[in-house]
Amino acid sequence: MRRADLAEFLKARRAAVTPAEAGLAAGGRRRTPGLRREEVALLAGVSVSWYTWLEQGRPINASAEVLDAVARVLRLDPVERDHLFELAGHTTHGVRSTAADVTVPEDLDALLDALEPAPAYVLGPRWEYLAWNRAQARLYPAIDSLPDEERNLVWSVFARPEGRALIVDWEDEARRVLSQFRADITPHRDDPETLALVARLRGASPEFDRWWPRHDVAGLTSRRRRFRLPDGRELTFAYQVLVAAGTPDARLVVQLPVDAATRAWAAGGDPP
User: Fold this and answer.
1) Is the dihedral of CA 82, 87, 93, 97 positive or negative?
2) How many CB atoms lie within 10 A of CB 13?
3) Which class for 260: exposed (0-12), middle (13-18), buried (19 or more C-beta within 10 A)?
4) Which residues share a beta bridge with 240?
5) Residues 212-269 pLDDT 10s
6) Positive/negative CA dihedral, 179, 185, 190, 191
7) CB under 8 Å to 66, separation ≥6 — which residues?
8) What gap in Å lies between CA 181 and CA 170, rounded to an integer?
9) Do domains 2-87 and 99-266 have the same CATH topology?
10) Pick from 7, 58, 63, 102: CA 20 to 30 A from residue 90's CA?
11) Which residue has the higher pLDDT, 123 or 92?
12) Side-by-side strand order, sheet with 129-132
C-alpha cells in the first residue's frame, strides 16, 4: 500500500510541474501535463530506469540525498517533502496508538474548561474527538450525540450534513482538512483503523472519494476559520493546534474569537 501511494504521489506531483517551472524549454505539444519521467531523472541526477522504478513503487532503496534531489525537481514544499520521505520508508516514527489507547489527562480536561468561552477540543491519532468543552458543544451541538464511529473531525466535515452546513466556504476548508489529515496520518496510514476510516469516508462522501487520490498534503497551521450558525450569524475564530505534553498522539485545538460578533456569541449574548 505504501509503495502504491508513493507511486501515485510522485505521478501527481510530476504532473503539477511545468517545464518552464523546472527551467526547461516547453518544446512541442505534450499529451499529458507536467514533466516527463526522463526530465525528472535528468534534473535529479539519476538514471531514467531508476526514477521509473521509484515511480512504479518497486522495492528499491532511495537515499535521503536522492530523495532531496527529486523533491527539489518536483518543487515540493516542506510538508510534501516529509510526506515523500515517509512514503519512501525514511521514518523514525513508532507505532501510533489507537483512539482507545489515548487517555486524556485530567489536567488537559481542566484546561478545556479553563479555555471557556473559547471552543476547544482534543483530537486523537486519527482525528477522533476525544474531549471537548461546553463552548465547542455549543458551536457544534451534534458532537454530544455522535456515535463513536462518527465522532471524528474529518467525518463531521465530509459526512455529517450539520457539520458541512456549519462551515463557510466549505470546499476550501474541506480540501484543507483532507490534505492536513493525509499528511498527519502518513506514518501510520497502513494501520487497520486508518484504512477502515478512509474506506468509510470514501464510501460516505463523493468529494472525499474524488479528492483522496490527488495525494495533496499540507501542514497544520494557525489560521482563521469561519462558521455559519443555523440562525445565519457568521462567526470567525483564530484556529490554533497544540501538541499535548505527555500525550503525543493527542492534539489540543483552540478556537479564539476574533471579532465583536464572535466574542458576543462566545459570551452568550447577542451580536452588537
Assistant:
1) positive
2) 24
3) exposed
4) 254
5) 999 899 988 888 999 999 999 999 999 999 877 666 678 899 999 999 999 999 998 5
6) negative
7) 44, 46
8) 16
9) no
10) 102
11) 123
12) 129-132, 120-123, 251-257, 234-243, 223-228
Q: Give the three cell numbers for residue 131.
A: 474531549
Distance of alpha carbon 105 from the chain centroid: 25
Considering the entire predicted model, what is its pTM? 0.73
- 81: CB partners within 8 A, 6+ apart: 68, 71
User: Could you count the other beta carbons within 10 Å of the beta carbon of residue 150?
Assistant: 17
The residues, any chain, with a CB within 8 Å of residue 167's CB and separated by 6 or more, are 157, 173, 174, 225, 226, 227, 228
The amino acid occupying position 46 is V
How far apart CA 256 and CA 100 sit, in angstroms, is: 29
Q: Are 199 and 227 in contact (CB under 8 A)?
A: no
Nearest alpha carbon to residue 162 among 146, 184, 178, 186:
146
CATH of 99-266, one of 3.30.2420.10, 3.30.450.180, 3.40.1440.60, 3.60.60.10: 3.30.450.180
Polymer length in residues for the chain:
272
Write the DSSP symbol of residue 118.
S
Q: What is the pLDDT of residue 108?
A: 85
Assigned C-alpha cell, 187:
506514518
Q: Which residues contact 61 (CB under 8 A, 6 or more apart)?
A: none
Classify 2-87 by CATH class.
mainly alpha
Give the residue extent of every domain in the chain: 2-87, 99-266
> What cell numbers appear for 240 in the block?
490554533
Residue 143, C-alpha cell as written in the block: 458532537
Q: Cell numbers 499528511 correspond to what residue?
A: 183
